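ARCHIVE CARD
Drawer: 12
Card no.: 0347
Subject: one protein chain, sequence and derived structure
Cross-reference: see card 0346
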Amino acid sequence: MTHIRKETIETDIKIGDTNVARANVVLLNVPLTEPFKISLGTVYDYSGTILELDSGNESGFGEGSTIQEITGEVPAAVYETVLQILKQLKGNRYLGVEEFLEDVYKSVYSSPTAKNAVDMAVHDLITKSIGIHLTNFLGGGLKSIPTSLTIGLGSVEESLRSLDELKKIKTRIVKVKVGKDAGLDIKRIRAISEHLDGRDFYVDANQGYKLRDAYRVAQVLRDTGALFFEQPMDKHNLQDLRLLRRQSDIPIMLDESISEPFDVVNAILNESADLINVKLTKSGGIRKAFKTLVTAQSYGIDAMVGCMVESKLGIAASLSVASSLSNVKYTDLDGFHSISRQPFDGGLEYESGVNTPATGTGLACIPVKERW
């Protein structure tokens, strides 16, 4: 593990009764245990920006890690944007978290990953300062939640080997990445479905198909008992997503199409989604992700909380959000499994297909700074 860049800045920001005296911003690069292959590309390393906000009494930590093809941000840009946001807000006074984050959201166009790092660090710091776990702050309770684990793109044989590895760690729900070659994907889905030994599964195309191929795959998913079909086509193509939903008997989950509350309303008006997948990174942080989930809940839409390739810190934050609303029926919070060395301990533990949050305040994560 190496840090590529690191900077400390004085911030002098006050949020309610909490002072944010200074910030440490670190850009880390850590090899993955194996490449992560999806239809949008292949990831070989974890490249994440870690933000520490220091009040003098407590430190709150946030993380920004993304896939460029999803949010449009490269690691160096996330790092620089976090610095720019904090410098721009230096010396400001805010009544509370909502007012502070409104300024964060307005400080720069888009850049959700950078905003997520700031949002997460502030939530961690505030909840530590008042002595409460973030999950309880959001209205949830500390509970164990099953998570899916992922089989990346590859041959039929590679997919079955990956499934065997997931069985060894007692995975309960299997996610299969598809979207490059519909013919091969169909063979993989059929082979995997025959070796699940009672486990649930679903597939995620990451926008990889056109309508014709998406329909072919949807029929196989129906026949093999998949839970749902995640993001079959381009995130903007709600018309074809609606057609697929009407023509197939498999629930359609939208992921890349959903970044904020408006996207939920738009998907519902276009009749293009049965389920949604909310990620903190896409949303720009905990608060907007929460609002997006509440919007879906108000329309009777169930949800998944997902992740990028993130450390235990980011996954712990996502688990807190997932625990806070009753319409979150699924989680896909396996992003820390492939990072070769963790920059944080604590936060949560994985066992037998289930994530269990650590007790404590904030996100209950312990920085391993010698790895920074």
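Annotation on reverse: DSSP finds 13 helices and 18 strands in the chain. The chain has a mean pLDDT of 96.
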